[in-house]
Amino acid sequence: MKTLIKPTVMLLVLLALCAVAWIFIRSNLQFHAVYPGGLTFIGGAQGLLGTEYHRLHFWRAPGDLSPLPNWTVHVKGTPYPLSDMNEALMKSLGGTTPEGGLKDGEDYYFQYRFEHGRLMFMSVYPSHPAQMPTPEKGKADRFYIQSDAGPPFLLPLTHKQLLQNAGPPLRMSRRIPN
Predict the structure, then answer these.
(1) pLDDT per position as a tens digit, 29-73
(2) How far apart are CA 54 and CA 133, in angstroms?
């Protein structure tokens, strides 16, 4: 009996150290879910096993003429497909061109940049990540996001909610934030 106590205690200490290391590493990673067209949701660990996405973006290199993601952003209650966005539209919504940003009623930013009249960058993210609103607080003046076939939804959202609203991503990754 006495011979089993020492190995058991050592095993328990090792398991506890592994659990603490796993929680520390997981909580410091950035989670990416990439959809067609390079549209990427970025988030972090939520609890021990969950993920919460709080940012959405895509970027095109200069000269890249590949199709824009087949997604829609709802601004002030009106849906705008990314492929239809142009500088005149952004000016009419109160933005500046060729780059700028809009802010919604819950302090989310919709940042964008055009090059030669083409949308090359967009990002939707909270201005204060520590005070992110809950999706249940939905309002007409929020930035809703919509995949080509799914319902409109708000950020932040859990991984399960992302799958329900947008389907499975092309790929997922975890990495150390820049």
Answers:
(1) 788 999 999 999 999 877 767 889 999 999 999 889 899 999 999
(2) 10
CB 66 within 8 A of CB 84: no
Using the CB atoms, write b or e for 69-83: b if 16+ within 10 Å: bebbbbbeeeebebe
Element (H, E) at 3: helix 2-27
Cis peptide before 62 (omega within 30 of 0): no
Structure-block tokens of residue 117: 């009249």
- DSSP string spanning 108-127? EEEEEEEETTEEEEEEEEES
Residue type at 54?
Answer: H
What token pair was written down for 66? 């590949």
For the record, the structure tokens of 97 come out as 């061109």
**CB 103, CB 85: distance < 8 Å:** no
Q: Residue 44: is it exposed, middle or buried by C-beta count within 10 angstroms (0-12/13-18/19+)?
A: buried
8-state DSSP, 83 = G
